């Protein structure tokens, strides 16, 4: 078993001093690194000294700092430890070890990567072990705004309806039938009987009322227009709106409307629902256990273990391995159903200059960045929020000459434009490239790196922000939600008059009769957002995905998500 106090001490000293024969250490240091009392720190140092893991020499006299020397070379010790943990399949310990801050290459080796994947546990349990390489954001349906977190929630919680992206229509789920008797102002949903929650109680209409009321209080933007929600019978829900809304049922198939039990306080650390998997906490992650009583059928796999670890290898593609199998995975390039963009903070003085905004658009030529930076990934320039629409439109041209003329017209004499960007290598590289290009034309920019879980706000000291937005299964609902959700950048940073015009167009969703009408509305909204250069769409990310040939009937989507419920491991001979 790993000696965690020893390992955390080695990690802290290596991070501070690098490779040395001995290290200076104080009891205050040890207390801080171990999170313990002075007495406990002394006992731990004495224990490690007595066991031969280190040599501890207490300081004698005032001003003489204690010293610690280690018996073995750190890299060699970690190689032996990680190999042993990998051989034992100790995924939780490997994940914990990876978070201590040792050099990544010394911990996350090829042998360690083989610990994760699809395999059979000691008791014959079919199990997938996988990793998440960033901190999780919100796991509350009210505020979830990440594709990965939304996908996890839908494994544990169920909505009333499901949207089928293949045919572009809704299909039954917790509600087996639904309809409107008056053309869209009143909607009636009929619930399945005998649907069980994970804690044993049966779903009824009061749980739906509780959930919708929770959404109305916590995310009023999402259920705007709802006047009344009633339960005429224990398995019937009636919703009255302020006017006809043909798009309303689509909102009840999204993550914000996942149904929760009324008698269990919601806890992001262990969400409880009616979904195909129960959620259990793990050291350094969580386990999704197949729910035998799921109304739509038990998952084929028994459990999925997810561990939080630092990013494995930069932007390397995630691979779904098969434990113990020697066949190579099959790779393919997939455009992510998302868009990257540059957005102005309309609340800053610099954003008021239309010429300056247009100049930055001319400067940011994504094809020039790809070419000059030698990016290996494939490039799909964005002319729309969705890659399928960008593929039908030629990328816009950019001109440094036009940029120079616009800058002269803008006559900007303010401080350097502060450019907010997530502290990721690829994103930083793009922001630095833009700043260098602008500087050559006399426009100063300062790149401001931000933590991965941060978002800029209107009052922040930033003029521009690099960001991305991911669409869910229902592209039109995702577009609507992105522009309506107050936690996202569009609502935070766009000018108030632009948002009013966008809202007026999006109100057309209520009466749109079909997908063609929704597409036309999207085109008009995009033209409004891009026409004033408050927003500049740059590119759609194209990712390389790999799936092992023994993994049957499941293919990762553009975000790397897989349908856990259908996942199973085939036989190489079949």
TrEMBL record:
<dbReference type="InterPro" id="IPR000914">
    <property type="entry name" value="SBP_5_dom"/>
</dbReference>
<feature type="domain" description="Solute-binding protein family 5">
    <location>
        <begin position="170"/>
        <end position="483"/>
    </location>
</feature>
<protein>
    <submittedName>
        <fullName>Oligopeptide transport periplasmic protein</fullName>
    </submittedName>
</protein>
<dbReference type="Pfam" id="PF00496">
    <property type="entry name" value="SBP_bac_5"/>
</dbReference>
<dbReference type="InterPro" id="IPR039424">
    <property type="entry name" value="SBP_5"/>
</dbReference>
